[in-house]
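Sequence, please.
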């Protein structure tokens, strides 16, 4: 996606350990015009998929997911990173966080992820694929079906995308980062 790649090259910043900071248009301040274009692109790329629900993980996945849900007129569910004390009937999985370097629990209510649901998962980044694998586990626990996984940015050098594609999952990434070596952003 050309405008996204240009924006990453213009405003993205590299941090040691292979971290790309896109805080001024995705992860902190958000650009709704770009986010709308991202939504439109996801809708195009998953046009052949049968979907009745969009899922994501809080917090940074919510903006692109809501754009896709709005365009497809489908409900959007975000998995929570803290189990709410008032919520029963939860599906829970454990995810290793690459940026925080620890495990955390991700949960979603069985009321909103149901047997027979055909879900499209949307998130900001795909790195090692741990968050994605956690979501695959929640979808499996719910007895739902995964229609595809869409990421704004995939870091190819961390190989989560390879693993997901090997599982036969329809993965779409709108910008693929080949390398962040020497703090230089190389985009495919
Ligand atoms: P994974 O689970 O695929 O290893 O990492 C995906 C999650 O980690 C994303 O949802 C994102 O929140 C975070 N993440 C991974 N790499 C980066 C990065 O380079 N920059 C930012 N901002 N977040 C990242």
């Amino acid at each position: 996606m050309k405008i996204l790649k240009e924006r990453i090259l213009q405003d993205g910043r590299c941090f040691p350990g292979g971290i790309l900071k896109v805080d001024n248009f995705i992860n902190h301040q958000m650009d709704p015009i770009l986010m709308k274009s991202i939504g439109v692109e996801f809708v195009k790329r998953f046009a052949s998929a049968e979907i009745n629900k969009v899922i994501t993980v809080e917090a940074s996945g919510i903006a692109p997911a809501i754009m896709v849900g709005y365009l497809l007129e489908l409900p959007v569910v975000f998995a929570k990173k803290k189990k709410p004390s008032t919520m029963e009937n939860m599906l829970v999985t454990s995810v290793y966080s690459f940026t925080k370097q620890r495990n955390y629990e991700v949960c979603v209510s069985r009321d909103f992820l149901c047997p027979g649901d055909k879900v499209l998962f949307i998130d900001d980044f795909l790195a090692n694929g741990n968050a994605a694998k956690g979501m695959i586990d929640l979808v499996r626990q719910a007895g739902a079906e995964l229609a595809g996984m869409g990421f704004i940015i995939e870091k190819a050098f961390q190989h989560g995308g390879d693993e997901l594609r090997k599982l036969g999952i329809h993965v779409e990434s709108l910008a693929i980062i080949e390398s962040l070596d020497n703090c230089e952003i190389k985009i495919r």
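The beta strands are 13-15, 19-21, 53-57, 76-79, 90-97, 102-109, 118-126, 145-155, 171-179, 186-187.
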